[in-house]
Design brief:
Elements lengths: L4 H7 L27 H20 L4 H8 L3 H13 L3 E3 L6 E3 L1 H31 L2 E8 L2 E8 L14 E3 L4 H8 L3 H11 L17 H14 L2 E4 L6 E9 L5 E10 L8 H18 L13
Length: 302
């Protein structure tokens, strides 16, 4: 027999204050009412998240049911549901007045799934590439006005670049960032560049080699669009060079960047043509695995 929703919530570690209207936890401890020091806002967030969990578990619930499960007044539950509805995370069924999860939850889940898919689908390509070229291979996306490193495969070289997974970097100073910026919408690109501007109107310099002039950066982005790759030498860090190319999704839009990075003394000019070809080919393979079919017929998934 299925567990009642309230029992499930308690069993899965839901906050104790949701189980009792008396303001006390089941063991008799007084529960913080949320007054002072912003704890009321934290409690509201906690309750809203619990509503999402309850809707996920039960499918549909009415305001009265939700209020009872949370141990709050019906008006409080209504306000929380209204806020979730505003953000598309919950929706009210017009015929019965009950609530269910909104499509906004699907969008959030889809964003997470797409990131996981990129990592999963890139590994059969990035691991052999790292072994073949001997340097670190990265998978990077745009996150707000910065780049976010989703995955990294280290090459066999003795001297390795440190782990970038989960790390954020300025977009304008990296090869990955330029690939992503070159294919961003005008509005998105303006926001990204605006975040990198200094009071003098120039882009923030991370090293003496960082491009800080907006016109020069725009010219570099035009080359990225024309040639299909970006190179950054000693711009993020002195001694670090990277080559990047775009990963495209099923609709042809650029969803991520694939790069090879390593010490500048190893990724020097004579190795660059091979590195560029390897990165472009690898990015095309990952794109194919993500469902993209190039206009000429494209590289099929391996």
């Amino acid at each position: 027999m299925p567990e009642p929703a309230l029992s499930r919530a308690a069993h899965h570690g839901e906050p104790a204050e949701f189980a009792d209207r008396s303001g006390r936890a089941p063991d008799g401890r007084a529960v913080d009412s949320g007054s002072g020091n912003g704890s009321g806002s934290v409690q509201s967030v906690d309750r809203a998240l619990t509503i999402l969990k309850l809707l996920a578990a039960d499918g549909e619930l009415g305001v009265t049911e939700i209020a009872g499960l949370l141990g709050v007044h019906k008006s409080t539950a209504s306000r929380l549901l209204a806020t979730l509805e505003t953000h598309g995370l919950a929706e009210q069924l017009p015929d019965r007045g009950r609530y269910r999860l909104g499509v906004g939850v699907l969008r959030l889940a889809g964003a997470t799934r797409s990131r996981l898919d990129i990592v999963r689908e890139s590994r059969p390509v990035t691991a052999p590439l790292a072994a073949d070229i001997g340097e670190t291979v990265n998978i990077v996306i745009l996150s707000g006005t910065e780049t976010l490193y989703l995955d990294q495969v280290a090459g066999p070289s003795a001297l390795q670049i440190h782990n970038w997974i989960g790390h954020r970097n300025p977009v304008h100073a990296t090869a990955n960032g330029r690939v992503l910026l070159a294919h961003a919408s005008a509005t998105e690109a303006e926001a990204i560049l605006g975040a990198a501007l200094t009071p003098s109107g120039r882009l923030r310099a991370l090293t003496p080699n960082t491009i800080t002039d907006r016109a020069a950066l725009q010219a570099a982005l035009a080359l990225v669009r024309r040639d299909g790759y970006a190179v950054a030498v000693d711009e993020l860090e002195i001694g670090l060079t990277a080559v990047a190319a775009p990963i495209r999704g099923v609709d042809g839009s650029v969803i991520a960047s694939l790069s090879v990075s390593g010490p500048s003394f190893r990724l020097e000019a004579t190795r660059m043509p091979r590195a560029i070809k390897a990165v472009r080919d690898a990015a095309a393979l990952v794109s194919a695995r993500m469902g993209y079919l190039a206009p000429s017929g494209g590289i099929r998934p391996v």
